[in-house]
Amino acid sequence: CIRNIDIGYTIVHGSGGYDSDFSDEDGQGESSEKKKREEEILQKPFEKGRHSQVAHRSFHTSEIDREEARNRRAHLISLNAFERHKKFVSDYILYYGGQMADFKRSAAKDKTDYDVIRENHHFLWREEDEEEMTWEKDLAKKYYDKLFKEYCIADLSRYKENKVSMLSLNLIEVVSQFQCGHKRCDNNDGLKSWEVNFAYVEQGEKRNALVKLRLCPECSFKLNYHHK
């Protein structure tokens, strides 16, 4: 028994051939896009494209500039502050001209810690002196806290003019309480303790304070010269 089998082909009139019912005559663009997508899916991440393009000159230049800036930044980070400063100064002179003497810093207003303490020192600190503390006053106050304030050292060289200067002891001079408290006397025999009213002028203000001195008989006479 012979049966007719429909194999899905139809005769195209006017062409004299066969064509598939599932063909898409208008889908040529879609098939090319589909093929491109399949190629992208099958392409491995480490593979390069089939048709590599040469980078533009501007892109090449920007990459070189970026690499040079990265190397320059790494070089500056490796320098310390002083070497970095010298490099910036030399680069400035190289591009804009000038001399190193133009960049020399003036040391006329330089101050050491001793200068700051001397300007802000108080013989005795009061509560009102500690108001509105600056870093200079804070430095002087820290120095004052380290002083030995039980006894003082006196300079009696001008005792006949009734001018006596007093200063507190630092830690190195604490031994002075076991010898005469006169700045220019090393006698340690017959020492006596005296408590006297010390009047002084500090930062344009008159102040008074009771201070203790440890003096030998000769220096005790100088201390009480005008009193006697």
From TrEMBL:
Transmembrane regions listed in the UniProt entry: none
Molecular function per GO: phosphatase activity
Biased composition, class Basic and acidic residues, residue ranges: 31-47
Region (Disordered): 18-47
Domain of life (superkingdom): Eukaryota
InterPro entries hit by this protein: Folate-sensitive_fs_Fra10Ac1, Histidine_acid_phosphatase
Record-given protein name: Uncharacterized protein
Protein source organism: Periophthalmus magnuspinnatus
